[in-house]
Design a protein that fits this description.
Layout lengths: L17 E7 L2 E7 L4 E5 L5 E5 L8
Antiparallel strand pairs: 1-2, 3-4
Length: 60
């Protein structure tokens, strides 16, 4: 199955997760997800950050 989006990624192993950093109320924490729908979000004049569909930043 293809999503036609170059930033989408599929995890094929059951015990594999993406590590993301989420900041809420000025507190950052690490969370894990299997959702591989990624986007580029602007952060500065010419910089972009890889984010999840929910807006979580710092995908690792």
């Amino acid at each position: 199955m293809s999503s036609e989006r170059s930033l989408d990624t599929a995890l094929l192993n059951k015990n594999t997760l993406f590590q993301i950093e989420v900041t809420e109320n000025e507190v950052s924490e690490i969370r894990y997800t299997r959702d591989g729908a990624f986007y580029l979000s602007p952060v500065n004049n010419q910089d972009v950050m890889l984010t999840t569909s929910g807006g979580a930043s710092r995908v690792k």
